[in-house]
Amino acid sequence: MASVTNTVERLILAAPRGWCAGVDRAVQTVERALTIHGAPVYVRKEIVHNKHVVQELSARGVIFVDEADEIPEGAVCVFSAHGVSPAVREAAIERGLQTIDATCPLVTKVHREAVRFAGDGYTVVLVGHAGHEEVEGTMGEAPERIVLVQDEQDVDALAVEDPERVAYVTQTTLAVDETSAILERLKERFPAIAAPRTDDICYATTNRQAAVKQMAVHCDLLLVIGSRNSSNSVRLVEVARDCGTDAELIDNAGEIQEEWLEGRRVVGISSGASAPETLVSELVQTFRDRGVTDISEFEVVKEDVRFMLPKQIRQAQAAGAAGTL
To answer: What local confidence, expressed as pLDDT, does residue 323 receive?
Structure first.
C-alpha cells in the first residue's frame, strides 16, 4: 500500500469476527487427516471459502479438486464444510475413497430438514444463492422436491403443487434482514408454510452481522477481510453499506486502496467466518505502522460454540493413542 497522509485516528474491531466453529472444525479435520494419513490428502472443493487457508493447506500437501472422479481410487478425500449431495457421496464410494466428512453440523441440520420435509410430501423452498456449494449440496438431497428462491420476486413467481404442503429451509450464510423479508413474503403467499424447528442461518453469520450493524454507525469506513466467494463475508459488506457506511471486502492488508482512507478518521474492521485471525492482526499492524494507536474492540456477544471433529478423525486418533500405550 502506497504511503499517504494519515487521517485515520482510530480502529474499531468487531467482536465476534473471523473463524466460526464449523470452519475451525473443517480446517482442523484436514490438518489431522494430513497427520494421520500423510500427504497427499484430497479435498473436494475449497475446504472453506478463503484463499489464504486454501493456499496454506496446499503448501502442506492438500490437493483441492472439483469432483471425486479427479481423485485416485482409494485415496483420502475430505468433503468441505459446505456439504455435498448424496450423488457426490455415491461417486466417492464407487471410487473406493476413504471419505472424511467435514460438513459443518449446521449445514447437516439443513440437509436433514430438507430430507424430512421432502419425505413428508412437502414442496421445499430453499432460500439461498444459486451456484453456492451449500445450496447445490442441499438441493441434491431431494432435487425433485426442492425449489430455490433468491429474492422476493422469485417468491412471487413460485408455482407449487399444493400450496398447503410447502416448507422452507435456508442457506446458513445469508443476510439476516434480507432473508427475513423473503420469509415474510413466503408466509404471505403460503400461510400454512412449515418452518424449520430452529433458524437455519448460523449463529456465527447472525452474530457477525449484528456486530457490523451496531458498529458501522461509528465508522467512516469498514474493512471486511474475506474472499470474494465467501457468502458470509460479502454479506458483512452489504450490511455495513445498508447502514450508510462505506465498506470494502479485502483478502488481506495488501489490497487496501489509498483513496479509501483519504479523509477517514475511524476505520472499522471485521472478518468473515472463514478468515483466519492472523489476517486481522496483519491489517491492524498496517495501521499501527501508520501511527494509529487508538485501537479497541466492539463486542456484541461472546461465542463459545465448539463442534466435535468427524468420527473418522476421532477414531483414528484414538487408535493411534492406543497404539502408543
So the answer is: 52
Domain holding 142, by residue range, is 106-189
Q: Which of 46, 113, 134, 141 is catalytic?
A: 134
In the beta sheet, which residues pair with residue 225? 250, 271
Count how many domains the chain has.
Answer: 3
pLDDT computed for residue 6 by the predictor: 76
What is the distance between the alpha carbons of residues 12 and 216, in angstroms, rounded to a whole number?
10
Whether residue 317 lies inside any domain: the answer is: no
pLDDT at position 246:
98
Question: Of the candidates 92, 96, 82, 90, which has an alpha carbon nearest to the alpha carbon of residue 131?
Answer: 82
pLDDT, tens only, 296-310? 999 999 999 999 999
CATH of the domain at 227: 3.40.1010.20
The mean predicted confidence, pLDDT, of the chain is 96
- Whether 164 is catalytic is no
- Sheet of 62-65: strand order equals 62-65, 41-44, 76-79, 98-101
